[in-house]
Amino acid sequence: MTEVSLKTRICNNIKDLTQKRFYFVLFLTSTFALYSNFLLIRLFTERFLGFNLISTTKLKVHAIASGMLSDFWMAGVLSFVFVLIAYTVNHFIFLKFVKNLKSQNKAKLFFICLFIVFFVFSLHIPYVNFYAGLITPFHLKYLLDFSFVQSSFSSLFDFRVAVSFLFPTLIALVLFKYFLSFNSKKFIYKFSLFVIILTPISQVVKVHLNTRKFTWTPIPLRVNFVENLILVYTFSKAHFQSEPTEKDFNNLLNYQVNNTNFSLQNFEHAKNNAAHYKIDLKDWEKLLQKYPLKPDISIGKDLSLEVQSRIKNKRPLLMWFVIIESFKPEDGKFHYPKSKISFQPHFDSLSESGIAFTNAWTVGSVTRAGQEAVLCGLWTSQYTAAMKELPNLNPECILELAKRKFGNDSFTAFWHAGRLEFDGQEMFWKRHGADVLVGINDYNKNLPKTWWGFSDKELFKKIGSELDSISNKHSIQVHSIMTLTNHSDWKIPSDASAKINDFYKKYALDPSQLTSAYTDEAINDFVMMLKGKEFPNSNKESYWDNSIIFFVNDHGHLTPSYVYPEEVTFGSTANADIISSIKASQANLLLQGGIVEKVLKKASKSNEVKGIKISHLASQADIFPTALDLLGFQNKYSISDSLFTQKRRWPVVVDIGDYIFVPSPNKKGEGVVWTRREALSSQAKNKDEYFNIAQSLYKASQYLLFNGGTLRLSEKELNDIENLENAFL
After folding, report:
1. Within its chain, how far is the Cα of 359 from the centroid?
2. Helix (H), strand (E), coil (C) string for 232-262
3. Any idea what the CATH number is for the domain that residue 455 is in?
4. Which of 36, 288, 435, 535 qualifies as a FRET site for 271, CA 20 to 30 Å off?
5. 3-state secondary structure of 348
6. Are residues 124 and 34 in the same domain?
7. Is a pLDDT exceeding 50 seen at residue 564?
8. Number of Cβ atoms within 10 Å of the Cβ of 61
9. CA–CA separation, 460 vs 470, rounded Å?
10. What is the residue-averaged pLDDT of the chain?
């Protein structure tokens, strides 16, 4: 007899999709193809997830082994789900409603769906490149955000995405034909059974590996991103979707400070069915009296007196909040004097001559968190945001509070050169007091730009061109600025100076350092503009003379792999989780401006401006209560503190997504790092009272973010606290 050809055998084996053999073949094919897809994604993303921060070979092997086991586990689970869907669709849709559809076409349709899955998963590579972290439930909503999709469209053509998509596709086609060519059904069944058994075993081994004192190996390296996404989503839902606690937030704070053994656990056991938290005015006043804001550093008191004098005498006052994209201290020499070169020389100079905070931290690792911290005093993060995620969270921010206090004499603005729709910025800042919002549509289309928007230099030029028309009408101005250029994928705009390419390129370890240098130049242009531009009707005073400027980065980032100077506590011998936390969250926090210079001259008792370094622990979120204090607000609500206090009321907490970092109040560069699960758990693992309070406050803040009840400051005039009865929504 003539031997049946390979093509004939394959066609015969695929003819009837009701044959269980086909589904076993489909399972094997998709499992190994998905596994190859996951491995390629891991290969292309590991350097952005902290692999280069692991110092020993043993730990690197652990991270790789754990990650590969997690990848195999998810490949098997997803393949089983895929086959189950294929079986259901075939038996309950195709065989009943599309009977004429050929079996070969059904198989093609199933594989087209599988190929789409490969492509979608491969897009995780540019995501990790951008966020230096695994995908979160929050960011799944970005697929519906046109501004985000438009800005990220170029990532679809990434070479790494193409490889991670095309190679598994080829693997799937080859394996499918190979398995269908077998005449022996027993081999297919036995091999499938072996893979099915191996799938849960891989997960058991992975769990065992991660209980053997390797707890600080970066989580993104030892878990598959799909598995992590599912775990984060289910854990967050289970933890936060419960009834409100019986205690209001202020009672919780008060109770925690005085009873550090108290742990906010098992909220689901609370019996109060009230829709929202209610605040007792007496409890609120009691808390304020017991833990008031205490700006006890003399320079802070002097600055407050100067600002109050200007307000009282109706002199011009411009308060600026310049939030600088990814402008981490590591790229300069002010915080790292042993660095070979500074990519932030202008900012270093400003830091030397201003009020600089050398132990300051951002609240998280994303831009929206930076904006909400600086301008609203919130602890939000990668997983939570008032801008678009949390409908119950409706804070009051510095722009609207300034409008309320100073009325028509005040002006507020949010300046940006990107898409205002992105992250819900436009609606949020319209709702929270911005008289003017400037975004990408307010610029000439031919100006220098990157994929994300127009250049930082054009942003500051735009501000300069509008200032006179604003200042002729308003003497009190509150400006918030969000820069853009120093942003992944680190493209340098065409208006960069020759020095960027001719000088800095020789020393840069990563393109992000070049965009950092560009933004530094733009900041210098902004400062020079303020110094050289005369304020209208002010006896030849410049805009700089009438300004107080808060400079701070929104967050840091994990690239490049820069070695920290040896004299710093968190040097190359530090744990990888500590180094990662510092890279992602250290703040470039600085106060500058003519008003600051005037106060510094008085403090130096000479006619020279001598900068001040403040080394105590500080948070990016401290800018909000500090600014309110300078503007004369009393009885301010905040779980942050004044920048000018020596002893904090509340700890500093940094929410980086998968990790929660609490810097030590006593030892610079040290602290505690928890996984999100550990931070939200009921088991207190901290011997130090400070970290117990930090954990309780973090849990309380997260619970309230998800369940509402955020305080609204309703003060209308100085010393007025009688309108606080409706403080909670």
Report:
1. 20
2. HHHHHHHHHCCCCCCCCHHHHHHHHHHCCCC
3. 3.40.720.10
4. 288
5. helix
6. yes
7. no
8. 11
9. 15
10. 79
The highest-confidence range among 122-131, 331-340, 629-638, by mean pLDDT, is: 331-340
At position 182, the amino acid (one-letter code) is F
What pLDDT is recorded for position 234? 67
* SS3 label, residue 202: helix
**What φ, ψ does residue 54 adopt, rounded to 5°?**
-80, 125
The last residue of one of the domains, among 640, 659, 680, is 680
Most confident by average pLDDT, 1-10, 260-269, 628-637:
628-637
Q: Looking at the predicted structure, is the pLDDT value of residue 253 above 60?
A: no
Q: Which of 707, 699, 604 is nearest to 276 (CA)?
A: 707
In terms of domains, do 449 and 504 share one? yes
Q: Is the pLDDT of residue 565 over 50?
A: no
Give the span between the Cα atoms of 221 and 60, in whole angstroms: 9
Give the residue numbers spanning the domain of 685: 242-291+681-729
Report helix, strand or coil for 729: coil
Q: What does each C-alpha distance from 365 to 582, 584, 657, 659, 660 come to in angstroms? A: 11, 6, 8, 10, 11
What is the maximum span of the chain, computed from C-alpha positions, in angstroms?
108
Burial of 577 (0-12, 13-18, 19+ CB in 10 A): buried
Residues 221 and 247 in one domain: no
Looking at the fold, whether 232 and 346 belong to one and the same domain comes out as no
Per-residue CA distances from 529 to 174, 317, 354, 461, 466 (Å): 64, 17, 18, 8, 12
Element (H, E) at 671: strand 671-675
Angle, vertex CA 207, rays to CA 201 and CA 211, nearest 5:
145
Are 261 and 350 in the same domain?
Answer: no
User: Are both 460 and 561 inside the same structural domain?
Assistant: yes
Q: Give the model's pLDDT for residue 275.
A: 29
pLDDT at site 284: 40
* Domain edge (last residue) among 173, 207, 237: 237
Hunting for tokens 């009296």 — which residue is that? Answer: 289
Helix or strand (DSSP H, E) at 613: strand 612-614
pLDDT of 596 over the 60 cut: yes
Give domain status of residue 547, yes or no.
yes
**First and final CA of the chain: distance in angstroms?**
84
Q: How far is CA 278 from CA 253, 281, 283, 315, 474, in A?
A: 14, 10, 11, 40, 37
- Is residue 411 assigned to a domain? yes
Residues 250 and 216 in one domain: no
Residues in the chain: 729
667 touches 569 (CB < 8 A): yes
- Highest mean predicted confidence (pLDDT) among 68-72, 220-224, 576-580, 688-692: 68-72
Beta strands 355-357 and 589-592 are antiparallel
Residue 265: which of 252, 250, 284 has the closest Cα? 252
Residues of the chain above pLDDT 90, percent: 40
In this structure, the answer to whether residues 280 and 369 fall within a common structural domain is no
**φ and ψ at 566, to 5 degrees?**
-65, -30
Residue 441 lies in a domain: yes
Based on the structure, what is the number of domains in the chain?
A: 3
Strands of 410-416's sheet in order across:
436-438, 410-416, 476-482, 317-324, 547-553, 589-592, 355-357, 612-614
Q: Give which of 299, 247, 297 is closest to 274, Cα–Cα.
A: 247
Q: Yes or no: say if 718 and 632 are a contact pair by the CB < 8 Å rule.
A: yes
* Residue at 300 is within a domain: no
